[in-house]
Amino acid sequence: MKRNILVFLIVLTVVFSTALATTYVVGTSADFPPFEYVQNGKYVGFDMELINSIAKAEGFNVQIRDMSFDSLIPALKAGVIDIAIAGMTITQERQKVVDFSNPYWFANQDVIVGKNSKYTVTVLFGNHTIGVQTGTTGDLWVTNNLMKAKILKESNVKRYQSFIYALQALLNGAIDAVVLDSPVAERFAQVKPVKIVATLVTGESYGIAVRKGNSSLLSKINDGLKKVKNSKKISELIDKYFGK
């Protein structure tokens, strides 16, 4: 009887501790497989499992909220969300308004076209239409390297709220190419009739963002990220979402 009572008290303590744990609202843009996407009505992907693993390691809870990518930083600044994780590249401009965790992933930009297309990297030059997701590194790269150099006109660049919309436009023939993060391009090339014709070496680092000055939460995230990286979990996630 005493043993049963002890077990009951332990379970009760765990339940109450979980219930009393701080819950942080995590913003993401669930259109970025394999990092974040919707499957069977649930938010899944590398980033989703990573933030949940960090939360478990640090003893807090998370509530996922989906929104457009370019809304994430404004939502952080306004206090609508506490954390943003969405394959977000750490840039100097973004560091002026939010704080980033230590990097957890590294990537470049890829150019994808239709699988049967004859386009090569030259699709980025001349009178072709390029799709990007608004506010992403691909958008910034095209703006800074092609539009400002007058290689492309404003009318040659189509911006979409989601990579899914950009991909659909490509498949429908509405645009000629899409510039996007390499891991996502590789994923699309595996499951959709598209191919990669060029890699733009940008050396990006992905980070988890919090409001500027929220050092206590940032410390928790970095501590949890370190624990996950030092465990078998990170290898499991890489194998699961990117293959061995």
What does this structure look like?
This protein is of the alpha/beta class and 244 residues long. It folds into two domains: 2-104 and 207-242, D-Maltodextrin-Binding Protein, domain 2, CATH 3.40.190; 108-204, D-Maltodextrin-Binding Protein, domain 2. 40% of the residues lie in helices and 27% in strands. It is built from nine helices and 13 strands. The chain has helices at residues 2-20, 46-58, 72-78, 92-95, 137-147, 163-171, 182-191, 215-229, 233-242; strands at residues 23-28, 31-32, 36-39, 42-44, 61-66, 83-84, 98-100, 105-114, 130-133, 157-160, 177-181, 194-206, 209-211. The protein has a five-stranded mixed sheet with strand order 5-1-6-13-7, with helices on both faces. The chain has a five-stranded mixed sheet with strand order 10-9-11-8-12, with helices on both faces. α5 links the parallel β9 and β10. α2 packs across α8 (215-229) and α2 runs antiparallel to α9. The longest helix is centred in the N-terminal third of the chain and has 19 residues, at 2-20. It is globular, with a radius of gyration of 20 Å. The chain starts with a helix and ends with a helix.
